[in-house]
């Protein structure tokens, strides 16, 4: 029986909908972002935190050589715990020189692409809120109150109109 199941899995077309084949078809790659040479990373901790760099070489299972000449990150060995992988990759070769990394980085327009991501916008919004003064927070609170009041009034009008139309 086991041999038949294995043979069935191997030689059945992908259109088969038996339970064993459905399980196999449902599997997808869990991780989309892999550590690779040319992967653009966001430095989350340590010096140069908040900047982008590219992986130039993988030192071992815990560390990588990163370089970000366009973003002001000096070539250095970083722990993977301090890096967050982005969806961007640039064409780099193993151990590429800094000037060539800068050229590839700029040709791929990584900074412009990064600025358009929700991740970068969220970080920018967080930094903007951190820089707010007490008076700025007060003005924001009042603006939200005004917006909520307008929404509440419009919702009341719509509810009243729907009650009248039901009668």
Automatic annotation (TrEMBL):
It comes from the Eukaryota. InterPro entries: Rib_uL2_dom2, Ribosomal_eL14, Ribosomal_eL14_dom, Translation_prot_SH3-like_sf. The keyword Flavoprotein does not apply. It holds the Pfam family Ribosomal_L14e. Keywords: Ribonucleoprotein, Ribosomal protein, Signal. One of its GO terms (biological process) is translation. GO terms for cellular component: cytosolic large ribosomal subunit. SUPFAM superfamilies: Translation proteins SH3-like domain. CDD domains: eL14 (cd23702). Residues 75-148 form the Large ribosomal subunit protein eL14 domain. Residues 1-26 form the signal peptide. The keyword Ribosomal protein applies. Belongs to the eukaryotic ribosomal protein eL14 family. This is Large ribosomal subunit protein eL14.
């Amino acid at each position: 029986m086991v041999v038949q199941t294995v043979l069935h899995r191997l030689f059945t077309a992908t259109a088969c909908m038996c339970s064993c084949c459905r399980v196999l078809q449902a599997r997808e790659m869990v991780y989309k972002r892999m550590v690779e040479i040319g992967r653009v990373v966001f430095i989350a901790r340590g010096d140069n935190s908040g900047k982008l760099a590219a992986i130039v070489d993988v030192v071992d299972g815990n560390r990588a050589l990163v370089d970000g000449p366009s973003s002001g990150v000096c070539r250095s060995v970083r722990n993977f715990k301090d890096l967050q992988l982005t969806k961007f990759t640039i064409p780099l070769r193993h151990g590429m020189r800094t000037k060539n990394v800068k050229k590839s980085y700029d040709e791929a327009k990584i900074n412009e692409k990064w600025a358009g991501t929700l991740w970068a916008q969220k970080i920018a919004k967080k930094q903007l809120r951190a820089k707010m003064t007490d008076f700025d927070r007060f003005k924001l609170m009042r603006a939200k109150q005004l917006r909520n009041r307008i929404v509440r009034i419009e919702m009341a009008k719509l509810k009243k109109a729907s009650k009248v139309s039901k009668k």
